[in-house]
Amino acid sequence: MTGSGLTRWRKFVRAFVIVHIVAAIIATGLILSSAWLVSAPVLDIALRVSAPGPAIRLGVDTFAFANENRTIYRGKPDLYPNWCFVMARAITQFKRFARFDPTAPPLTSDEYTERVRRITARAPWRAPLPAADRIVIPGYGSLYDFSRAQEGAVKAGLGGRFLSWIHWTNWRVVFPVPGAQQEGVVRETLAELQAGRPVQWLVTNLPVIELNHTVVVYAYRADSGHGIDFLVYDPNDPTVPGTIRFDRQRQRFWSERLYNTRVGPMRAFRMYYSPIL
Question: What is the tens place of the pLDDT at every residue in 38-71?
Fold first, then answer.
């Protein structure tokens, strides 16, 4: 490498490092300040309201196929790995923008793929469409039935997964977070569930190299002590509800039942609920 080339390389590395240091400082500030920027009711008030019914129905409003773990399903010829973020996001998109009509004539696989693309092209934080304006999936009564019968067409329509891997908010998993911030996630989630809206979470138990994943929260139950159990749809295990517990006293989450994840402490963050988060 020539002297001028080496100089340019050093400048690039220096700029790269500076950008990431600044991003880390901003990220840390956002995490720390977010605990005091929550507009949802405090827990004592939120929990006075009776828990509503599930925001989605497992086995009805969810996919019939799973996001498959590369390690567990190693060698599987039609392996479908690393789609968890896309699948979880699509649950909200189908709930807000799609309508199923089992009495309408069915379409071809390519036509179904195109309809799935139209549904998942809409940002998941946008307001739900009126029934008359929703994208119709004819021939099936639910997302579960549709994805079971038209698995290939649905998978083709879900789009790419790369951008979900590098989404700028994924950096949150590497930072320690205060308990007040985690309680803020709970307060916002309760408000959404009480309004009938499912909530997508980014979940992690780093520094353990085990859980860097996403789930969709669809129901909760509070006990008489200090616990709140959240029921989640896990793309890795679509037939059985997962359970994540929040300890109000310790202000922390605990993985009670998540696929291929040990029971223990974890952190949770909301995903895809605004253009920047």
Answer: 778 999 999 999 999 999 999 999 999 999 887 7
Angle made by CA atoms 272, 276, 277, in degrees to the nearest 5: 40
Give the residue from 182, 115, 172, 122 showing the smallest Cα distance to 146: 115
The C-alpha angle 104, 56, 94, rounded to 5 degrees, equals 50
Q: Torsion angle, CA of 86/101/109/165, rounded to 10 degrees?
A: 0
| 225: helix, strand or coil | coil
In which residue are the tokens 């997302």 written? Answer: 143
Which of the four pLDDT bands, split at 50, 70 and 90, describes residue 124? very high
Nearest Cα to 182, choosing from 31, 27, 30?
A: 31
Please report, for residues 13, 73, 81, 154, 158, the alpha-carbon distance to residue 77 in angstroms, rounded to integers and kept in the order given.
40, 9, 12, 18, 20
- Does residue 121 register a pLDDT over 80? yes
- Residue positions counted in the chain: 277
Residue ranges covered by each domain of the chain = 1-34, 40-51+176-270
Q: What are phi and psi of 96, to 5 degrees?
A: -90, -30
Reply yes or no on whether the pLDDT at 244 is more than 80.
yes
State the DSSP H helix or E strand holding residue 233, giving kind and residue range, or none if neither.
Answer: strand 227-234
Task: Specify the pLDDT at position 175.
Answer: 79
Tokens 């002590």 identify what position? 225
Residues whose CB is less than 8 angstroms from the CB of residue 13 and which lie 6 or more positions away in sequence, other chains included: none
Helix, strand or coil, per DSSP, at residue 180:
helix
Annotate 95-160 with three-state secondary structure.
HHHEEEECCCCCCCHHHHHHHHHHHHCCCCCCCCCCHHHCEEEECCCCHHHHHHHCHHHHHHHCCC
Query: Encoding tokens for residue 269?
Result: 């963050």
Cα dihedral: 135, 118, 273, 201 (round 10)? 100
